[in-house]
Amino acid sequence: MAHTRPLHAHMIHSWDGTAWEVFVAEPDEARWAHIPFPVGDGVPTVSARTAALRALGYAPLSADTAWEWMETFFEGDPEGTVSLIASVKVAPVTAT
Question: Is the whole model's pTM more than 0.85, yes or no?
């Protein structure tokens, strides 16, 4: 059955904090493929994130769509490290 809700791509820090990871939250999948970017290279640009999404077989719904940023507490600890998360709605890339 095809999913009718939009898919979301996310960019988060890896569990060990050494990389940003771009992935698409795919329904019914336990593990999601991801593209890593070393933290030392800074925050990946929108162009770099878009290229990562294409490598994963997805694209933002619109070329001019900005990624939304939010923060959450890492591991649910309000006194601990804050985790930054970026997200954007995506669709599968169709072969031409």
Answer: no
